[in-house]
UniProtKB/TrEMBL annotation:
GO terms for molecular function: hydrolase activity, hydrolyzing O-glycosyl compounds; metal ion binding. This is T9SS C-terminal target domain-containing protein. NCBIfam families: Por_Secre_tail. It comes from Chryseobacterium indoltheticum. It holds the Pfam family Laminin_G_3.
Amino acid sequence: MKNKSLLIKQALKSLLLCGLTLSTAGLDAQTLAFPEATGFGRFTTGARGAANPQIYLVTNLNDSGAGSFRDAVSQPGRFVIFKVGGIVNLQSVVAVAANTTIAGQTAPGEGILFLGPRVSFTGANNTIARYLRIRYGGTSQNQDASGIANGANIILDHMTFTWGTDEVFSVNWDNNGTSPDNITIQNSIIGQGMHRHNHSAGGLMQPPAGGKISLIGNLYICNKTRNNKIKGINEFVNNVVYNWGNYGNTYGHTQSGEAYIMGGDSAGASYANIINNYFIGGPNTSGTVSTPFSVGNANFNLYGSGNYFDNNKNGVLDGTLVPENLTGYPVGDINAIQTTSYDYPMKNPTLTAQGAFDNIVSKVGASYPRRDQVDQLMISDLMSKGTTATYVYVQSDLTTQFGFTNGGAGHIYGAPAPLDTDNDGMPDAWETANGLNPNVFDALAVSTTHAPYLNIEVYINGLHNTAAPDFIIPPSNLNFTNPVTTGTPASSSLTVNWSDNATNETNYVLERSPNGTAFTVIATLPANTTTYNETGLTPNTQYYYRVKAVNATESSVYTSNASITTPPIPSAPTKAANPNPSNGFNDVQLTNGNLLLKWTGSSNTITYTVYFGTNPQNLSNVATVPYAAAPSYQLSNLNTATNYYWRIDSSNALGSVTGDVWSFRALTPSLVGNWPFSEAPLSGEQIADLTSYANHGTLNVAYDNASVRVTGKENYALDLATSPNTPYIASIPHQDQILFNTNSFTVSYWMKAPTSMIPSSSATSLYVLCKGSFTKNTATGATGKRFNVEIKGGQLRYAIDDDVTKKEITSPIANYFTNNWVHVVIQRDITAHKMRIYTNGVLSAEGDETAVTGIGEASDLIIGNIGELEFLSTTNAPAPYKGAFDELKMYNYALSPTEISALYNQAVLSNAEFSISKNVGTVYPNPVKDQIFIKLPEYKKSSLTATILDMTGKIIIKEKINANGNGVFNLNIAGKKVSGNYILNVSGEELNSNFKIIVQ
């Protein structure tokens, strides 16, 4: 079998060598993407290959819009030239279009950096990108900093990719578009994969069968693993891999690390040249490994030569040659190790491993016009030769450890772009020096000296061979202090401040504008100045400022515009406004009797006086609050079911103003919806709500039949088996009492479904109920806020979502699909910051809901499908639950475990239904303060025993009481120091009844 295997592999090798020889021979006469282009992607044409190429000038650092990088790469066929340098803070992923040439080396000053959501080269067929820095650094899991999921003929040169939370840079086909092929990544840094999620990884290089990738002269640094994980046709030449692994981490993460993964668990054959690379262990690399190559499989065929491994961490580059056997390359079969290289473009590199190290130290990454602070740090770590490394858990570590600004990215200073009169992307001085006319737009003409390159390519391809011009570092951090306005005469003043970053300036030029566009010089100040006192300004007026540094021959770029509105002429404050809780709101949720009042006021307020009470005509002065931009005051010892009134008076040295009287009512914990589905077939569309809200639900009248209105847990229920995917057939209208925005709530229902209804796919969802929406949509009114019960992935899932933070808890699906009636309770408890699921009266899941804010959406509650407003768009597909549903109840507070157990045992929390005997009466008043009156028309005895129990069953009060002349029993609880929710049990001869009471 070994001989047969050897013959097969030799045949595959012969075919591969033959095919590649023929294919590359036909390409020898093609034009290189740029003179230093190597590897399989070396003949990429970029924008030159477009039918009608264009020049696009990036003129600002905005995320989007005209002149932005996002706009520049949004259309194919463009040469992207930068007229600005600095940091672009991305708000979403940027996708590079096909046939694009991106010349990051043209960004003046310290170059260009894209920070935040990734820049993607997926679909960027026939693209050249050079000298860009792309740092992701987000906190969400499983996101590459950049990569290629589909696309061919792409070359990326002198790039820096860092801070991925999954891979840093991967080529991994998504089975869409053009399969990855003829891709080169060269002279680039792939490093500092974030360790936050214990998935710091260089990248996957996994094209489909026949896809070819070259990795030439790159630095892989401070990634735990996959530096790279290689599959398919690949050449890995003149690279340096440094400090792989996470050994010694202090975060409790599992320790591991791989430098070069030879196929790993990837299916399919691989054919790789691995030539003249240096693998250097660092502080986070295991000291016990004997080779940098690992996880080889029997399908990984390789030629390995000139690769060195240095893991002694002694600060000297003195590695040893990796042996060309199964010890050095553990693929499991010696026949997979070739004795001659595959006929790939870089099979005969001119640099040794030592030469590759030196070249990388000198030039790797976005090194032109200058390396930034993060790249310099990585090169410094590399030059320590094993003694130092930067373990980046999150990007802010670089701020903590090294003082790097901008969230750890450090500074990237811009500079003025060179003069380009005709705006063709080529500076006047360069055009003149190269025999072109700086007044003629001739960038897209074929060069007369370097054909078939275009003039613009000759310029950008040679730029890195010239010294980066010196520039004046611009000032930064423009801000204002001491804004003052006087009334007589009416005049304003302020101080303008900035940071002095330059060392070669002679002056600072400060400019002011009334509109942010037309600026006037107001001061030329000496070197090293950092403040300027502005006087004679108009009160209550917005002004814009900018400043630049200059010397005799040049100037820096301006700071970003900063604006300030001068204070108004001094006057008494205006009335406080925007009360929270809002005026007249009747369902205020208390937290252990506490409530935070909030309001807004004018900025000239000195103090606020808070008045509060239960009588709007007689409010008490309860506090004096100093001015704050967001003022508030904490109330305590409040009672439920009570009307409160409050007022805010505002004062300063010039007077005071009396505020309006606002009111709110503390929430009465109660049942706010009760839909027993007791309607028989052919009763019509109504689903009656038995509470006083009478918030009747609706059943699609087409389904008002005996197949849907079936025998239920009690009386009738809804069987949703015949309901369509769309639209939903049953809903409860939105009303304020079921908004459940920021308050506690409990939802109780019964469900019945057979095991056969469990989804066969873990990706399939069934929604038992949903109130709200998944995706914000201004066109439909969807807010992205909701609560829902979903069946998916073997779990019943209860989720709440405020459109920013989603929290979800789960319970195994087997508990619910039993073909028996199952009682389900979902709950949000604001006081305890918990969300819970109860199953048949027993707690089955609990989770933290901290960080979730308001989840209320003014849309109907849908039974058996996704949210109402989702049906107005196609973003989210319907997901109907087809089982039975019964006895829906909703409460505006978190029921106790005892109350939930009572619900399961068919008791409900209303005076009309909570009794457990037929001797039902009434209890009043409820809520109660001092005296409880009990009327039992069918009870003829003159005495009974009244017992008050808390929700855990503990007896609080127990007394024997007598009826008065009208047959009404009276229980005096004045002075008993009880308040809250209780159970009142009355017992006597043939009497045993329970009532829920609220004691104030």
